[in-house]
Amino acid sequence: MSTGRGRTLRGDRLHIGFFGRRNAGKSSLINAVTNQAAAIVSEIPGTTTDPVFKPMELHPLGPVVLIDTAGLDDGGDPLGTLRKERTVAVLKKTDLALLVVDGNSTNFAFEDGLVQEFENEHIPYLIVLNKVDLQLSPETEKWLLEKTHMRVSSKNRTGIDELKKKIAEIAPKEWEPPFMRDLVHPGDVIVLVAPIDLGAPKGRLIMPQVKALRDVLDAAGIAMMCRESELALTLQKLNQKPALVVTDSQAFTQVAATVPPEVALTSFSILSARQKGDLDELVKGVNAVKNLKPGDRVLVAEYCTHHPQEDDIGRKKIPRWLNDHVGGVLQFDTVVGSDFPADLKDYNLVVHCGACTANRKEIMGRIKQAAEQGIPITNYGIMISYLKGVFPRALKPLENCIAPTRNK
Ligand SMILES: Nc1nc2c(ncn2[C@@H]2O[C@H](COP(=O)(O)OP(=O)(O)O)[C@@H](O)[C@H]2O)c(=O)[nH]1
Ligand code: SF4
Ligand SMILES: [Mg+2]
User: Fold this and answer.
1) Which of 112, 177, 242, 350 has the highest count of CB atoms within 10 angstroms of its CB?
2) Minimal CA–CA distance to 380: which of 278, 294, 272, 288?
């Protein structure tokens, strides 16, 4: 997925979902909020029923994505309606929900249903009464009584700045763990090993490498970057041992042989897995590979539609490696995007992609779902690390780090 120059990946942004009945003014409110923004990064149009994602910088919060749930309407049973596929899919990734209320409404069963759903999902939410330039119905006044809410007019742009301040106030402050900032002390020398092979994109670095560089700088560390072929030379030229070496998992065996055993070593995949998911569960999940036998069912879950490559990791490599590992043929199913099945019980193992375009909230939800159903779940990076014999050395540097519990 192209992210454009200097742009924060959508998956790394705080996801703010705008919910409410049709015509409450969700789209108008999003426009009012984004128009006053310092930087509107882009607008990704969807169809009339698909949610629309609008990335923006929301001062002082930072990079967020506003999600317009265009498909939701207020017909029929509120919860039945709410369970509509697309809205549920948005709820799964929502870090903060805004419930947009139209002051003309006379019945709030629908809104009550949404509030219930936010509470069930432990999503912090804010009620926003829109259209305050119009006469409010007595029922609206009554419903809002004793409810914390903000009053805005998207049309006249009143109350919008106050709303933005409130959003910043109640938004979760740490919705994902750092990539590696917490592993670096000021002045630490960190060596990053990046193989430049045929799989490396032309003229640039891949996102985990960029994230690592940025985190080392944020933590006032010193980053050295080299290919695995120059690693020995790099270590030789340093007048002290590095505090940490991070390598691509594909080169792990070679790198582990070069880096002295007392030097901490981990892989980009492990750092990514920690940021986007529950590292403990994913490692626990990969251990289930030991129990796999020919004929067992494995679900491969890809988070986005990407053009499968010739020797695609999820479609080709992982099935091949796993079949080799069990010495027979396993049954593989592949799902893409939000088609992650509610019932995983027919599977012996779920292998998720690296989820580079997903946000942590949604991946944590999938990991939790698998854990509740007793189905082991792991991801590509952890699977490769396991098959490459990376554990336990590569997990050691993460042992004592403070793992944020939010979204767990
Ligand atoms: N008077 C008034 N009309 C509004 C306001 N916000 C939205 N509207 C109107 O309400 C209608 C529905 O708005 P829209 O943003 O499309 O609602 P959505 O379906 O929730 O996305 C449109 O005709 C808007 O012009 C407001 O603050 N005041
Ligand atoms: S790792 Fe997952 S989210 Fe990232 S490009 Fe591949 S399929 Fe898409
Ligand atoms: Mg709309």
Assistant:
1) 350
2) 272
